[in-house]
Design goal:
Chain lengths: ~300, ~300
């Protein structure tokens, strides 16, 4: 077979065949544990011990019920101890992910628009700030960030996290910058002749032109924030998100959720919704993001 | 009459300029304030914190000169933890550079060439990027700790320890995990860079009879060198920020022999009281001072000595 591939198509060589074998190995190494995890999450504990590889003898949906039941955590709110259940965590996750993704994307977009379209010296300064901060590593500024967040009353507030995350630094600014820079000035001039203000030009002409990029970046940010457990763990002590709940669940030593199938059921409960989002949006997500822009 | 017209034009132009400036100021007000507070302010405060102590009785910060630096340098010498964290951070960086970047490039080349199964591989490589690290770690952990030993016992009738439980394999398993999940974004960006190469360059090289290794080495690599440089620079900059996913694996309880600086700083900050913040900020400052020159030198070297596109 390999010989045939070599003969038929010059694109195949020893190098590409080796890469193909490694990629097949990688795919198996990634898909098999995920599949194994999915199948195992439907096994009873005894079924799993006697049959760790095969299909479940009987589908143990109760693993998911147990996971759902124990998917809670306690938080200290002043003198009170509160129980936070999965529904509240989902709400917190949605708020944090949608809001955080929107504000982060919007901030990058407006900054890129202003600096790409208005030729003030300050625009160049902002551009170089982005470049330099991407190269310059700052290690361990978390203690200071927490102090500043607390001082500004943004600690333990989802709105506070929106503000914290709404920065223009990083790759997405450059993506928007390249996009806005490439739009001909004629659009702006024509709108101005028709009496449009700068705000109208931005919101009714420029932003709609960038909506595909805007949506793609917001989607990437949404997934990042949905999966992020470290920021909420640090900044939202009384408003845990689903990712924080899962962290707590996976490290919990409660007996009822200590078995492998029940642990996996909890993990998959969180994984499946985002996997469905991925299936429906994967073309857009992987549509060819480049350092200098997005391919349309 | 004509003078009036010119004056009106001048006024209109001036009004337009003022409107533009006002719009510019309004639209940038929030992003710049956010940057000034959460980047400039936070990092400036980090420097100040490094020169302060905290009086628990009075509940106030006070200046304490270089005390924090002296303490940190003494701890660097006396405490094995820092030596381990330093060593592990460097090993993780080298491991990531060798396997992560190398395989990332090769996988991207394969996808770029649109060879057998490239669409599937592209999706598979991206999956870990969309799955929560806690989900990935939970599945991976259960698989290597419970799944693999059970499977091996059932097939070969041999009992082995879990890969993480076996102390000889724990760190290697964690290094493997971090490379294993890390191909998604890099592959997308490398493929993006490769796709922007002018196809006529590749075609003319193929007419000249270059093989795939020559094509990859002498055409693809030089042309995507800026993207490659950016990746290496970002990796170097993140040497002491890499947590190795240890918090997802162990929470606060990772063994000291597995520590990286990224993990140590995050785990300490999570439980830190005001009194601990200056010490941690000092460690951050020292690590930043170590990382910045290394990053800049490597960036310069990669740009100066990188392959030529001539």
């Amino acid at each position: 077979m390999i010989k045939n591939i070599f003969k038929k198509n010059s694109k195949y060589s020893l190098l590409t065949i080796v890469i193909m074998i490694i990629l097949i190995g990688y795919t198996v190494s990634l898909i098999y544990p995920l599949l194994w995890g999915f199948i195992t999450s439907f096994k009873g504990t005894l079924d799993y011990i006697s049959n760790p590889i095969g299909l479940p003898q009987k589908l143990a949906f109760e693993n998911y019920m147990t996971a759902y039941q124990y998917f809670y955590l306690t938080v200290e709110n002043g003198a009170n101890t509160e129980y936070i259940y999965i529904e509240e965590m989902i709400m917190n996750s949605l708020l944090y992910s949608v809001g955080g993704a929107f504000f982060a994307t919007f901030t990058a977009a407006i900054t890129a628009y202003a600096t790409a379209r208005f030729k003030y010296a300050f625009s160049k300064v902002v551009y170089w700030i982005v470049i330099v901060t991407m190269i310059l590593p700052i290690v361990g500024n978390l203690p200071s960030e927490i102090q500043v967040t607390k001082a500004l009353g943004l600690y333990d507030s989802i709105f506070g996290l929106f503000v914290l995350k709404a920065n223009f630094l990083g790759l997405y600014y450059l993506v928007f910058y390249a996009m806005f820079k490439a739009i001909p000035k004629d659009y702006e001039d024509a709108a101005k002749i028709d009496g449009a203000s700068n705000f109208q030009i931005f919101f009714r002409i420029m932003l709609p032109m960038a909506k595909k990029i805007f949506f793609t970046i917001m989607l990437i940010q949404f997934i990042t924030f949905w999966n992020d457990y470290q920021t909420p763990l640090l900044y939202l002590p009384t408003k845990p998100t689903l990712a924080v709940g899962l962290f707590n669940y996976s490290t919990s030593t409660i007996n009822a959720i200590s078995s492998t199938p029940v642990k996996l059921a909890g993990a998959l409960m969180v994984f499946i919704p985002i996997f469905i989002v991925f299936i429906f949006t994967q073309k857009r997500l992987m549509g060819g993001m480049q350092m200098g822009g997005l391919k349309e | 009459m004509e003078g009036n017209y010119i004056d009106r034009l001048k006024t209109k132009f001036k009004r337009e300029k003022t409107k533009n400036l006002l719009f510019y100021i309004v639209i940038l007000a929030f992003p710049i304030s956010q940057f000034l507070v959460f980047y400039v302010g936070v990092n400036f405060n980090s420097i100040l914190l490094a020169f302060r102590g905290y009086d628990i009785d009075q509940g106030k910060f006070y200046w304490n000169g270089l005390d924090n630096f002296v303490k940190v340098f003494n701890d660097f010498q006396d405490m094995a933890l820092f030596e381990i964290a330093f060593k592990n951070s460097i090993i993780a960086f080298m491991f990531g550079l060798l396997f992560g970047i190398l395989f990332g490039l090769l996988f991207s080349y394969y996808i770029y060439k649109k060879l057998f199964g490239h669409k599937l591989f592209k999706v598979v490589l991206f999956i870990p990027s969309i799955v929560s690290s806690i989900v990935m770690v939970t599945i991976f952990m259960q698989f290597v700790e419970s799944g693999i030993p059970n499977i091996i016992e059932q097939i070969f009738n041999i009992r082995i320890m879990g890969l993480l439980a076996n102390s000889d394999l724990t760190f290697t398993t964690i290094l493997f995990y971090n490379v294993w999940i890390g191909f998604g974004v890099s592959t997308l960006l490398y493929v993006g860079a490769m796709n922007s190469i002018n196809i006529s360059i590749i075609e003319s090289a193929q007419i000249d009879g270059v093989n795939t290794i020559q094509e990859f080495r002498h055409i693809i690599m030089p042309l995507i060198w800026p993207t490659f440089t950016q990746f290496v620079v970002v990796s170097v900059g993140a040497i002491f920020m890499n947590q190795l996913s240890l918090y997802a694996f162990y929470g606060q309880g990772a063994e000291v022999r597995l520590y990286s600086f990224g993990y140590f700083l995050y785990k300490e900050v999570i439980v830190a009281a005001n009194v601990d913040l200056p010490y941690l900020a000092t460690i951050g400052i020292i690590l930043t001072f170590i990382t910045v020159p290394i990053t800049l030198v490597i960036k310069w070297a990669l740009q100066k000595y990188g392959p030529s596109t001539e």
